[in-house]
Amino acid sequence: MASIQNLYETVVGVLGDQAGKVISALGEITVECLPEHYISVMTALHDHEDLHFELLVDLCGVDYSTYKNEAWQGKRFAVVSQLLSVKNNQRIRVRVWVSDDDFPVVESVADIYNSADWYEREAFDLYGIMFNNHPDLRRILTDYGFVGHPFRKDFPISGYVEMRYDEEQNA
């Protein structure tokens, strides 16, 4: 297994300016990129012979509107992907900050990583992050008539629709 420092240097060399920031902390590498470089960064990590991150292990949305119990000054939403290279026994994280906090949109990586399909649907359903060119972007966990996106930090705890239990009808 190659060292974290070697992986860091390889990633910086391969991605160049497309990686807005490459962070090495706590034994892990995180690549932060702009939305316009997201597809090229993910393609390079997948296809480059020295990297070969062939598996997307996880992809999730993150709402940073409050972070560490205080107001966040940066972009509100990010899409975070965890990649694995079985060949090189290495992991890497990719974080792409979504440009528009009111209508979060980022490109889909489902054409690069098949496993992104349902992960992106989950991020759409729970956070409202849109994925351009996704093959089937629709709700996956909540009902089609569900109002809002329940993992957003501004989503009300009781939801937007009030429901009551009727003991006489057991419903």
From TrEMBL:
Per the UniProt record, which EC number(s) apply here? 7.1.1.-
Q: What family does the entry list? A: Belongs to the complex I 30 kDa subunit family.
The organism's lineage is: Bacteria, Pseudomonadati, Pseudomonadota, Betaproteobacteria, Neisseriales
Q: What class of enzyme is it?
A: translocase
Q: What is this protein called?
A: NADH-quinone oxidoreductase subunit C
- Would I find Cell inner membrane among this entry's keywords? no
- Where it mainly occurs, coarsely classed, is membrane
Which gene is transcribed and translated to give this protein? nqo5
Which of UniProt's keywords are assigned here?
Cell membrane, Membrane, NAD, Oxidoreductase, Quinone, Translocase, Transport, Ubiquinone
Membrane topology, from the record: Peripheral membrane protein
- Report the domain of life of the source organism: Bacteria
Which Gene Ontology molecular function entries are recorded, alphabetically? Answer: NADH dehydrogenase (quinone) (non-electrogenic) activity; NADH dehydrogenase (ubiquinone) activity; quinone binding
- Substrates-to-products reaction catalysed: a quinone + NADH + 5 H(+)(in) = a quinol + NAD(+) + 4 H(+)(out)
Localisation: Cell membrane
Q: Which GO cellular component term is one of those annotated?
A: plasma membrane
Indicate the transmembrane segments per the record.
none
Task: Give the function comment from the record.
Answer: NDH-1 shuttles electrons from NADH, via FMN and iron-sulfur (Fe-S) centers, to quinones in the respiratory chain. The immediate electron acceptor for the enzyme in this species is believed to be ubiquinone. Couples the redox reaction to proton translocation (for every two electrons transferred, four hydrogen ions are translocated across the cytoplasmic membrane), and thus conserves the redox energy in a proton gradient.
- Give the NADH:ubiquinone oxidoreductase 30kDa subunit domain ranges: 32-160
Q: How does it assemble?
A: NDH-1 is composed of 14 different subunits. Subunits NuoB, C, D, E, F, and G constitute the peripheral sector of the complex.
